[in-house]
Structures are given as structure tokens and as C-alpha cells.
Amino acid sequence: MTTGSIELLVVDDGAALRGYDCRDVVRVEEVAGEPGGYLVRLGRLGLPREVACRKVLRSVVLSTGEIRPVPEALRERISGEKPWAVGLNEREIYLLY
Amino acid sequence: MDGEVIGMVSTSGISPLGEAREELLLEASIEAEASGREKAQEESGPARSLLVFFLGTEGFAVDLAHVRKVLRPSRIARVSGAAPEVLGLMNCQGEVLCVLDLRRTLSPGKETSPPAATEGKFIVVIQHEGKEAGFLVDAVRDVAELPASSVHPVLDSVDPPRARLFEGTVTCGGRFVGLLSPSACLNP
């Protein structure tokens, strides 16, 4: 990671792409007996938590200019865990959790 | 004074007096027209420019003052855990735009149908008090100029959750269209 950028671990949760700060990732585990199921353990930067996902896709580096606030119209319409930002590059949009 | 000569008949047949009177009459008629327009506007309220669009055969309108732009949909990224009317996020010339399905926004609680396909449709980007979202619609027709007095209240027969999304109804091109409230549509 360089200054002014963030490296994200991009996962597919079955419905959308999610990005997690690679520095926060403790471990990625394959869930036994569930093909295509993974568990991402987080908590290096904050509280320990686990996230289940369908696929672990790749890591991607976004510059600070490619990180935007979550549109208010969306934030108000999300139940449960809310993303803290949106990552946006020429190819894709990631929700950052 | 009676019989006072105030002008002469010119060779062209129009006297200077006649010209002056013509000018006065013209000015008077312009003023009268303008005042008539103002009076009519006072009576009917200022004109409103409305963007008219469709969902199927049903017409809707929104005040153009709240329309930021109209776009063709591009790739929309889905969002987990979002309300059924959220289609996702779109890269709109480097800005992140939240795209909502207007059909589902207008029919809360009736989310059994699959999310709308976006091909051939339009996104009307509406802004109100700093909040913004794109609404997927089937077709955009035109801009109608209507006096404010032509906005009628929403019919009592409309379900209250749906009725709150409208400012009223207007007649455009001989058909009733629902005038959407930007504030209500943007605020869940």
C-alpha cells in the first residue's frame, strides 16, 4: 500500500462486491462442506468480526480519489451492516465495509 | 380647445398625430397584454416546468427545478441488504449515483416481481435539499409548462403510502399524470 491509497480485499457475498481493508484482514478460511463458501476474519484494525462470502476475488488498490462517501439515499435504505464508503474505479464499484 | 390643429396629413396619408396615436395605442396594447398576462398569472400562479415520463402507460411528472439530469443506465452495481427499491450504484461520470426503481418506490410492499431490467430505459436524477438519487423510468416524454393552479390534489382513493409520494395530479396532453414530490420520493 502506498500513501493516499488503500488496498482492498474484494469478495463476492453472493449479491454484491464488498471490499475490506487488507490491513484489517486476519485470515481467510474456506468453510468445510460448503463449496464456494469462505469466511473472512477481520479485526487487526478494530473489533474482531467474521464475514461469510461466496468467493474471494482479488485485492485491488484504490487511490483516495477513488473512494467516495456512501450516497445518503442509499445509506438510509440499507438495513444491517452499513458500508463506510464506496470505492469506484473505471471497471467496478465496491462497497467498503 | 376644439378644432385645434395638432397635426397635418402627410403625403403618405399618415399624419404625425396619427403616428403618435398609433404608437400610443401600440404601447397601450402591449401594456394591456402584459398586464393581462400578469393578472392571469396572479390568478393561476406562476408557470411550472414539469418533466413528464412514463412507467408503462402510466404518466408521471416532476418539477424540472429538481431534475439534475436524465441518463441512460449503464452498469449498476448491486448492494446487499438494501431496500427492495434500490437497484444499486452507478458510476455517473465519476460520481456515485444511487439508482432506485421508481415502480417499486411507488408500490411499497409489493416487491414480489424481480428487479426491473434497465435496457432501453432512462434514469431521471432528482435532487432535493442536498439529497440525490436516480429513478429508473420506462420513457421520458417532454417538458410541459403548466400554471401552478393546474395542480390538483391527489384523489382520496389513492392508498396513503402511495399518496404521500405525490404533490398532486396535473393534466398533460389530455391525460392525468401524477406530479411526484421530490422530497417524499427521496426520503424513505
Going across the biggest sheet of chain B, name each strand in turn: 3-7-8-6-5-4
What is the succession of H and E elements of chain B? HEEEEEEHEEEHEEH
Count of DSSP E strands of chain B?
11
Spatial strand sequence of the major β-sheet of chain A = 6-1-2-9-8-7
The overall pLDDT average of chain B reads 82
Low-confidence stretches of chain A: none
Number of discrete helical segments of chain B: 4
Structural class of chain A: mainly beta
The biggest sheet of chain B, with number of strands, parallel, antiparallel or mixed sense and barrel status, is:
6 strands, mixed
Question: Which H/E pattern describes the elements of chain A?
Answer: EEEEEEEHEE
Mean pLDDT level of chain A: 91
Total of helices of chain A: 1
Query: Which range does the strand content of chain B fall in?
Result: 35-45%
Description:
- The complex is a heterodimer of chains A (97) and B (188).
- Chain A has 97 residues and is mostly beta strands.
- Chain A is built from 1 helix and 9 strands, in the order βββββββαββ.
- In chain A, a hairpin with a 4-residue loop joins strand 8 and strand 9.
- Chain A is globular.
- By secondary structure, chain B is an alpha+beta fold.
- In chain B, strands 3-7-8-6-5-4 form a 6-stranded mixed sheet. In chain B, strands 9-1-2-11-10 form a 5-stranded mixed sheet.
- The radius of gyration of chain B is 26 Å and the shape is globular.
- The N terminus of chain B is likely disordered.
- Classes of the chains: A mainly beta (97), B alpha+beta (188).
- Chains A and B meet through helix 1 and strand 9 of A and strand 5, strand 6 and strand 8 of B.
